[in-house]
Request: fold
Amino acid sequence: MKSAIALASVAVVVLLLLLAVFRGLRFFEALRGPEGGTADRAAEEIDRLEEERRRLLGHLREIRFDHETGKLGDVDHHELERRVGQRAVEVMQALDAARTAQAPAFVTTAASDPGEDGDR
Reply:
């Protein structure tokens, strides 16, 4: 009888451990999401922001060129340049934030690690 109780207790403990492991795996899958890991999503976001930055900077060059060639009046030029420039700044700030978030928590620099030359 004692062995049956011990066996049942072991079975309950094993089931609880399996449940904990399963819930842990589900937690990490939820973090990853359907698109892949968080690192993959961060890299995709950086790529998307870089592409938008390139596109916006190209638009700014076109706006300036069109103004210089007379295709775009002063008022339109200033308004378009303001709106596109503002969006470009927002994208660059988001890009900096995304790159910072993706970077390692610490960076070793030459100033903080003098190496052989700093020992003299």
Observations:
- The chain has two domains: 1-32, 36-104.
